[in-house]
């Protein structure tokens, strides 16, 4: 791969370089610098794209009701038609908010009883974005790259966590998070450092063909996903949690 | 067929999930339409369509890409139904609601203005990649393009942004 080919590949998808591009980057300081600038630009693009989303209760505009009872009524009254969500008048807002809160509480109780917590669901969904990353291999990723990925999220490793074969900064729930793949005796496991997603207590899940655990860590949490028994996932989660220093 | 969103429990789960995904859906719609009000309308219509079809979903993990596809189609439908007035980008940015006209810092605002000015063909795949975390293959499927075409658009989108922002590397081809 020459410099022009590298810059075309890195300019199109700087977060996911192929093996040839990675080798070229390591051998060519000018292209490594070009990649650094592109990743820097991507961080600015991400910040610019993250426009404020409206709250449901924003005044002066129709609020969207996602209350199932309300939706069911509208569906029954106007089947097959494309209709707008109900506009919630301000004076009805408090009453409706109370019903939504009640609904969410009931939903949450049901939710806690099952494995499909939404954070877990998002983590599993994210796995689908990088299916090629979680492979068994003896090759370690460039330690500098692993450090850079963690540094971007404001964390660093105080001690080793085994062979890290893959490291990437990924968009997740509106934030950029480290996505690592660690090689263990129980097979490769994905580790996501979720500074912005706090969980009160450890959560296990088995969904979409993956098993996983999400444990509280620092200001957020750490997710470990793989095809291994829960005990192995928990062990790796514990090792990562002990090794990470939050800045 | 496994239908995770059937029944009352499924309805509550689906509504809660939609609520959590709403910010991302709104941002995607916003960058398609470049208009907050249109984006809110698109998300409302899309959520209702999704609600009606929720039982057809076989996997919970597929909700987000499914909703994003609905948002994209709803935006296209709205665009077909309504002819929007064409305005200059500077005018558009200047007339935005306050929270869009003010960013955390001037640099972010400058990049936002530059993204506003990108043609749809370049802006859309860039949003899908950088904001939503889609892979090149996923973008290709969603936009009905070849993988190579997606990579070319992504490369050119960044080149154009560099040029507009006066950053080094904008001349590289």
List the helices and strands and how they pair.
The complex is a heterodimer of chains A (about 250) and B (about 170).
Chain A: H1 3-12, H2 19-27, H3 29-49, H4 68-77, H5 90-112, H6 118-127, H7 143-152, E1 155-157, E2 163-172, E3 175-184, E4 187-194, E5 203-207, E6 210-217, E7 220-226, H8 230-243, E8 244-246
Antiparallel strand pairs in A: 1-8, 2-3, 3-4, 4-7, 5-6, 6-7
Helix pairs in contact in A: 1-2, 1-3, 2-3
Chain B: H1 7-33, H2 36-53, H3 63-81, H4 89-94, H5 98-101, H6 106-117, H7 120-131, H8 136-143, H9 147-165
Helix pairs in contact in B: 1-2, 1-3, 1-7, 2-3, 7-9, 8-9
Describe the protein's architecture and organization.
Chain A has 247 residues and is α+β, with helices and mostly antiparallel strands. Chain A has eight helices and eight strands, in the order αααααααβββββββαβ. Chain A starts with a helix and ends with a strand. Chain B is built from nine helices and no strands. Chain B is elongated, with a radius of gyration of 18 Å. The mean pLDDT of chain B is 79. At the A-B interface, helix 1, helix 3, helix 4, helix 5 and helix 6 of A face helix 1, helix 2, helix 3, helix 6 and helix 7 of B.
Would you summarize the structure shown here?
The complex is a heterodimer of chains A (247) and B (173). Chain A has 247 residues and is α+β, with helices and mostly antiparallel strands.
